[in-house]
Amino acid sequence: MGQPFVITTAIDYTNAPPHIGHAYEKILADVLARYHRSRGDDTWFLTGVDQHGQKVQQAAAREGITPAAFVEKITSRFTALWERLCISYDAWAATTDPRHVAVVREILADLYDRGDIYKAPYKGFYSVRQEQFLTDKERGPDGEFGPEWGEVIELEEENYYFRLTKYRDWLLALLDARSDLVTPAFRQTELRNAVEKVAGDLSISRPKKRLSWGIELPFDAGYVTYVWFDALVNYISFAGYPGRDPAAALASGAFRWPALHVIGKDILSPAHGVYWLAMLKAMGFPDEAMPRFLVHGFVMVDGEKMSKSLGNVRDPNVFVDRFGADAVRYFLMRDGAVGQDLDFTDERLVSRYNTDLANNLGNLLNRTLNMVHKYRGGVLAKPAAPLPDDFSARVTAYREAFDAHKVHLALEQALGIAADSNLLIEQEKPWALAKDPAQAARLDAVLYRLADSLRVAAILVAPVLPGPASAILSQIGWTGGASLADAVCGGIPDGHRLGVPSPVFPRIAPEEL
Ligand code: MSP
Question: Which residue's CA is the closest to the ligand 1 atom numbered 5?
């Protein structure tokens, strides 16, 4: 076991069912978790749902059911989808869970005792849709609040505030000292600029008369907790943090922390990069226990942002029905760099799947098994003089890419091994070697290399394609280890018998689109 690896995603809002953007983030985190498990790291993957807040209360009211019944219904849509997409999370964070509620209240009480939460009146413009007070910087060029804010009302109320401004200079110093906090690096620069502009404290309460669907403040029963303050705490409440005394919790060994938070670009600043880091500091977390952030781009649909008003919100289930979970997982991980936006189109998905999986990896599997059965009765001979130029350089590049969260480049290396092997078949022409008894040893060496490369390629694609990877390993008769340490050239023993081929990546006919 190496360094522990704790990974989380954002917890998804339960005011509406999941879309393809939610699926992208979940698959990305799942793939990283599976890669770390394959490396032998002590891996723990937390994900879940954000169940409180005004949007949920409003959506439930529109349907004429209670918020509790509403979130239960939407939550089951998320869990069913994660099962279909093979998301291997270790723990589930649902913010109505009584354990979470207790920890949020404990943290609030602690911060209140320390004087980091205070009560003050406030009057201003308020966006009902975004659940936040608006300032002049939210006004458009015409001086109005744009349609993205929905209904804007003028509101005066007393609320509780968290002393965010007290932590501004500390946060700037932290960002300067720890250049590794945010990936990609330009997002850390963006965050630093946002921290410099922090001017006011954060309202962390909502009066119950306006919003009742939330966690009641421990020191004032007239209020519930602002949904972000509640939601961010999931990362520690479900990881074993009891609500006070971070030093003791960190020393106990029972608290899975610090985490790598996988989040979209819209919620780094201010929610995670400002509020969350300041909250942890206020609770007494040391600088070395601050989490890191992997910030991904957005999935766009046919070049446009998904939105209800454009009517282009994509249900991932439709893609799973049509193309299967493997094709969806592969496409989302292969088609763009983490950090950049990715355009989702049916054509690109099908073309990636057919080119890389059906024609390259799938074809190699089929050709190799057929040739070994035809020329050697299904049995491999381990060559005394193996072919030069093994694939270890690609395995090293794969590891480096994954360690830098560059999943698409890691996949390029894994599939590159299969492409190299297909090329080897064209160069060596096993069908010609088989006709010449003087070339028997050469044929053995080529067939061995092909099967061994399939074994290694299957191990390397496993984080993204767990099902197909085990199908490939089972067809080549591999029952040995399948972790990253096993991805070395020459692992198959002499006399190994291969299984029977059956298609793992059936081609998707583009005309079906
Ligand atoms: N509930 C908050 C997060 C609280 S975390 C303590 C939230 N929920 S969300 O449902 O709106 O978004 C969940 C995640 O999905 C976020 O990381 C967000 O960036 C991501 N995405 C939302 N739309 C997306 C795309 N179109 N593409 C990729 N990711 C997207 O924010």
Answer: 10
